[in-house]
Design brief:
The complex is a heterodimer. Chain A has 21 helices and 21 strands. Chain A is α/β, with parallel strands linked by helices. The chains are: A alpha/beta, B alpha+beta.
Chain lengths: 535, 349
């Protein structure tokens, strides 16, 4: 999100989901396996493609949407920046850039132009493995299409250069004027059901709700007044730093709500040692997870079906979550957290989540006009600053949040770890359709059909390794190892092994890289070097 | 946009040109019986139950595939129409009279049979018998309840784009089935369940809901807890237990469409491994505790650690799976009570 915040001044998906079928003339997908990670959005992309909307898929893996695509760019993993720079190079060279948009809406164009000048088709083709002719065709298609939506997910962000990847996506859409109108935009599809909301609520070390900076004195004063307490103005720790400090013994106590970093965070051995090193750990969870095992106190959590509240989806739509059954642990999560406040001597007495929401809205300019009543039927897309405001389906109409859109000159950066003689394969990771991170294995129906990891290996590599579909292999990196079943398939390129991360028995993140994007602290899940040995 | 005025059962209606008579009737609040029509699917005109009389027209017209024209006078409920609908229903249940009375699952056909007084079919003849397919944990397929309306085929192709279902054979042997006529589990099915959501007879049904009539279930509209798309659906509840998920056309993002997780992954809620009470670790073992015991201990230890090592020794991980309200409280607790900005969540992971 940092990438879009720098470029546009706001780090959210710019355009709504339904514009895929209602407005778009071209969809440009890079690093998103939408039909598996966000199936319902994937259906819409399929429908649009079959109705004549052009589809370009950039993915090293043969994902399902490749079969619907007009163009498939199968670039080498970790070469998103040269690919995007190469497309922009051609657009500028051919004089197809949107000059009016660049002039009126953006700044720093000359720096971008100077940087992409180096990314000639020949050079880009050598880095990405993509034919020059294909680069020309796609570049021209993007530049000459009026309404083009760009989509990405973690295939762009989970790299050492994730933020720069995002900025490159934004560059392409600004260069071609595909922003601030229906059927356009830079659209990161968010992973979890409420990852947008957790950010919007200020569950981040640098901002209060609605992205109000903790270091700004006037913001601090506002929250001090509202909460009637003195507040810290120093930016806090990001997750990787928390575990770093836990390992170093500086962070002593943690409260973890509804997360299982042992299974989901990169380099899990480092997470385990950090948790073990804490003096006191509280975990609030549905199940006794790998992370909860380390806790001194485990608090039982209520599930979505047991809670009133709201979730904010990837297109900034705040929608109701409604209680359908009584909380299985006896109380809802908000009640448990309120008990923590009260026992710590900070009295709170909310009687319903709606009161919590209203307090938040009163402190958040971009959500000040949102109420439970207004969102009841169709949700409300923020920004929604006043009570009579209908919400905002697409962002940046006429003007970017920060004023002018800022082009960023971005250079190629290789992954933090590349295959070598000892670890000759590149491991990439992602989601599969049937599972959602680490909750779905607790669904008996889903677990009964999709019960184990199936690591994907190219037939060429399978021949060398003498492995067949169904065989077990050991996958090892410099950080750890695991065993998994193998599926031999040309969905992946030679030299690449692909795994999901849903299974306790094959804990993929025991081997993933601990290289981080230095700007966001996001782990490089999409590329690390591993060895594969048949068992 | 050109508007067309017409009259349906005495009500004046104005709708955009190109609207069908059935859609215009829906606009006017007049319900015309229908089985093969669905607002999210292409028009089929297959079941013929939506027949209406239009003044000046010869015979009756299937309203779902008849476009409105100016000045149309439409009647949707006459003795002749009732007679025709009754005959159509009798033909539809001829293969399996059980269809007329089986109100389990999503059997809309049975409701119409009740309305038009159809209990059995006078059209006796050879009947087809097919094995029930319950090869998978989610969907039960019973061809003996199928009326070949083709909604499942259209849903698979037009909503999901999976193209797993199609018609096989002709005439008496016709069936709406998977490619190669295999069980669902051995087909290309992704178990999105769109076919189940649109099926009007219960030939396709949610395994978890087959034992319930729809009107004995409480439904609660909510937002899916899995990915960031933000699909809405209704949780079906019986005796304070979730028994299924039903999708609905009003959902702003997804309409009736869901994926296997949203439609069938909800049972994690009632997994027996759910934690039900607080646990405190004593000598390396978790022992159950009351809420007060657990929270007293938490408050005591958080206070001690904050006093001894300072605010920066505390950190909180909030959750992208939890509600906005819970996230708001966690960051407020961290900042206002623990006096630190050490709060984050897995947005970056």
């Amino acid at each position: 999100m940092a990438g879009l915040a720098t470029t546009f001044g706001s780090g959210a998906m710019t355009n709504p989901i339904n514009e895929i079928t209602d407005e778009a003339e071209l969809m440009f997908l890079i690093g998103t396996n939408t039909t598996e990670a966000h199936p319902v959005i994937g259906y819409k992309m399929r429908q649009a493609a079959r109705n004549g909307c052009k589809l370009v898929v950039c993915d090293p893996r043969h994902i399902d949407l490749v079969d619907e695509a007009d163009y498939w760019i199968r670039h080498n993993p970790g070469t998103d920046i040269p690919l995007l720079n190469g497309l922009m190079h051609i657009i500028i060279k051919e004089g197809l850039e949107n000059k009016a948009f660049i002039e009126e809406r953006t700044e720093n164009y000359e720096a971008l132009k100077a940087t992409v000048a180096k990314y000639t088709p020949e050079y880009v083709s050598s880095l990405t493995g993509v034919d020059e002719e294909l680069l020309y065709e796609v570049a021209k298609l993007i530049a000459t299409t009026d309404k083009a939506m760009l989509f990405y997910t973690l295939g762009i962000t989970e790299h050492v250069c994730g933020t720069h990847n995002v900025m490159s996506c934004a560059n392409l859409q600004m260069l071609t004027g595909h922003l601030g109108r229906p059927g356009t935009g830079v659209n990161p599809i968010r992973g979890q059901n409420n990852v947008q909301g957790a950010c919007d609520m200020g569950a981040l070390p640098n901002v209060y709700p609605a992205y109000q900076n903790v270091t700004l004195p006037e913001v601090q004063a506002k929250f001090e007044k509202a909460w009637n307490v003195k507040l810290p103005n120093k930016v806090g720790l990001k997750i990787p730093e928390m575990f770093e400090k836990a390992n170093e013994g500086e962070v002593k106590a943690m409260y973890i709500l509804g997360e299982n970093p042992v299974l989901t965070d990169p380099n899990s051995n480092h997470i385990r040692s950090g948790l073990a090193n804490l003096e006191f750990l509280v975990v609030q969870e549905l199940f006794l997870t790998e992370t909860a095992e380390y806790a001194d106190v485990v608090l039982p959590a209520a599930s979505f079906a047991e809670c009133d509240g709201t979730f904010t989806n990837t297109e900034r739509r705040i929608q109701r979550c409604r209680k359908a059954i009584e909380p299985i642990p006896g109380q809802a999560n908000w009640q448990t957290i309120c008990m923590m406040f009260n026992k710590m001597g900070y009295p709170v007495n909310y009687s319903h989540p709606e009161e919590i929401f209203n307090e938040m809205a009163s402190l958040s300019p971009s959500m000040a006009g949102v109420t439970y009543e207004k969102m009841a039927a169709k949700g409300i897309q923020w920004p929604c600053p006043t009570i009579d405001h209908p919400g905002t389906p697409y962002l940046h109409a006429g003007k970017f949040t920060r004023g002018l859109g800022a082009f960023q000159a971005i250079e190629h950066q290789a992954p933090g770890e590349t295959p070598d003689s000892e670890y000759p394969y590149l491991l990439s990771t992602g989601r599969i359709l049937q599972h959602y991170n680490v909750t779905t294995p607790y669904s008996s129906g889903i677990a009964s059909i999709w019960d184990r990891e199936w690591a994907e290996v190219n037939p060429h590599d399978a021949a060398v390794l003498n492995i067949r579909t169904g065989d077990k292999v050991k996958v090892a990196s410099r950080r750890g190892e695991l065993t998994t079943s193998v599926k031999v398939t040309d969905r992946v390129l030679p030299g690449v092994i692909w795994m999901s991360f849903h299974y306790t028995e094959s804990p993929t993140n025991a081997v993933t890289s601990d290289v981080l994007d230095p700007i966001t602290g996001t782990g490089e899940y999409k590329a690390c070097a591993v060895s594969i040995v048949k068992l | 946009m050109e508007l067309v005025k017409l009259n349906i059962d005495g009500k004046e209606v104005e709708v955009p040109a190109g609207t069908t008579v059935l859609q215009a009737a829906d606009e006017a609040g007049v319900h015309i019986p229908r089985l093969c029509y669905d607002p999210e699917l292409s028009l089929a005109g297959a079941c013929r139950l939506c027949m209406v009389e239009i003044e000046g027209w010869r015979g009756m017209a299937a309203s779902c595939i008849t476009e409105v024209s100016p000045g149309m006078l439409v009647k949707t409920d006459t003795p002749d129409l009732a007679e025709v609908r009754k005959t159509i229903l009798e033909l539809l249940v001829a293969n399996n009279p059980e269809l007329a009375s089986n109100a389990k699952g999503n059997n809309v056909l049975a409701k119409y049979c009740e309305q038009y007084g159809v209990k059995d079919s006078p059209f006796k003849g050879e009947t087809n018998y097919y094995e029930i397919d319950d090869s998978n944990p989610f969907i039960v397929r019973d061809f003996s309840l199928c009326i070949l309306c083709g909604k499942c085929v259209r849903a698979c192709t037009e909503m999901t784009g999976q193209d797993n279902l199609g018609f096989l054979n002709r005439g008496y042997d016709r069936k709406a089935t998977t490619a190669g006529d295999v069980d669902y589990i051995n087909s290309d099915c992704v178990f999105c369940g769109q076919c189940v959501a649109v099926c009007p007879t219960g030939a396709l049904s949610e395994k978890s809901l087959t034992d319930f009539a729809r009107d004995e279930l409480k439904t609660v509209r909510t937002t899916c807890p899995f990915c960031g798309t933000g699909c809405n659906f209704d949780l079906a509840v019986k005796d304070d237990k979730i028994v299924g998920v039903l999708s609905n056309p009003e959902s702003p993002v997804n309409g009736r469409s869901l994926c296997v997780k949203g439609r069938f992954g909800w049972d994690f809620v009632h997994n027996e491994k759910r934690l039900k009470t607080p646990l405190i670790k004593k000598h390396g073992q978790f022992v159950t505790a009351s809420w007060d015991e657990a929270l007293d201990l938490i408050a005591e230890r958080f206070k001690e650690i904050k006093d001894q090592y300072g605010s920066e020794s505390f950190a909180a991980l909030s959750s992208a799976r939890c509600t906005n309200e819970e996230n708001y409280l966690v960051q407020k607790f961290t900042r206002a009570v623990m006096d630190t900005n050490n709060v984050d969540h897995c947005a970056r992971t």
